[in-house]
UniProtKB/TrEMBL annotation, chains A, B, C, D:
The lineage of its organism: Bacteria, Pseudomonadati, Pseudomonadota, Alphaproteobacteria, Sneathiellales. InterPro entries: GlcG_carb_metab_protein, PduO/GlcC-like, PduO/GlcC-like_sf. Gene3D superfamilies: Haem-degrading domain. It holds the Pfam family HbpS-like. This is Heme-binding protein. It comes from the Bacteria. Coiled coil: none annotated. It comes from Sneathiella litorea.
């Protein structure tokens, strides 16, 4: 039997709060998805004005980051023609995302979930995802 | 009527064993898929710690290698903009994989199945897939 | 943070062994899928002669049983016209199965995974799934 | 290693010819799909006037009949509320068909492929599928 740690719903709300605050600060309403370590959705928020397409995109970014234990911008870096990982973004029915904005959430060196942001530029999405994690870590101290 | 040779379940377990041993040796828990010559799954193993995303990715690599009778890294080589094969990875509902780690399994010059590895880098996935086939061949001698 | 228990790969092989023995006993080669508590595949075996359609069906039965924490034959019982659960089998892209042969695997009252059998009649599939779990429990004692 | 027998392309054309003749005789232009023993398409014909929806339906009927080694009308008989197989038609992404018109093709007691007809009533589809197989058998003698 294996024992696995994962984000609780309360943890997910903390992550969303941190991401939402940054989204408000930069003036871009976002879709924010939080998944567990298996990539399954725990919480989702579409801020008023968040894009409809970003509902799925944010969830796929979070899924990729958690279930593959890799930031989506790291997949972006290797998803270039000629690299042996090229084409990874169409795998799993296209759910593997190589667009910046998905980050794994780790505690004590173990991936316990993922966060995915979408509606801004990839750089804005990444900034808000990082803010969510930073806020989450601040509550663990 | 045609007569076709394909891997048995016992053959599949031998392929998995060879791939698993290499995965352990390099310290990367893997997802390992073995398919028959038509691309249909015979056996699958997610080593403890293998990635959830790699369940499907390993199966799709094996499917591509067996059913198209081509290593996924060979598709990778031609899946570059400007090449007439560019975009092949989105075909068949995205099941065609151009990420290294899928190899056809041939006996007497005939493709009898495929092996797909996922969870490491493409180079690591390829190394373990090759180890699976090498172990399988060693049992045929 | 939540802590979750799930089947290991070694546990999955024990479940498969128990189901396979029963399948051999009744003379019906089966497809056998074992998933973790989130519904993700850990191990799969297509016995020589198992049906190709049963690859996906066994996996979906195991997925349903584990992720919904309900035997597929229990969904079958309520999936009748007029019952408020009618139509449940087309949900989640059709992955929810209401065909007998999928059982949750519980340890200490907690669902830690699922087993799905397919290739026989639903009654045969159920018998083999139960045999897998019985064998697994016998190794825990 | 396993050895499997399957329909050749020449066999598939014979099956189509028999089905087409019956379709002309009853005055219903049909879609006719022939698959191998793994359920993969070997030959397809849409007679002038065949329905567009029947392209996929005939292929799914043939797939079901060959890969599950069962006539689709036999699935129809058990796909009734209260039966433990109820809901089978939505499995494998909805490709399992319980509509009459798909038949396995057997030689020497072994399923070597499948035939699927669509565009008429299920009874007409079944009649034409049977005619295809009868014609195929007549050429084996």
């Amino acid at each position: 039997m294996l024992t696995v740690n994962r984000l609780s719903h309360a943890d997910a709300l903390i992550l969303i709060r941190g991401a939402r605050e940054k989204a408000r600060e930069i003036g871009v309403p976002m879709c924010i998805s939080i998944v567990d370590e298996s990539g399954n959705l725990i919480a989702f928020e579409r801020m008023d004005g968040g894009k409809v397409t970003s509902i799925t995109i944010s969830a796929d970014k979070a899924y990729t980051a958690a279930a593959a234990r890799k930031a989506t911008h790291d997949y972006n870096a290797v998803n270039v023609p000629g690299n042996l990982a090229f084409g990874i973004h169409t795998e799993v029915g296209g759910r593997i995302s190589s667009v910046g904005g998905g980050l794994p959430v780790s505690v004590n060196g173990e991936v316990v979930g993922g966060i995915g942001l979408s509606s801004g530029t990839p750089a804005q999405d990444m900034e808000c995802a990082e803010a969510g994690i930073a806020h989450f870590y601040s509550t663990l101290e």
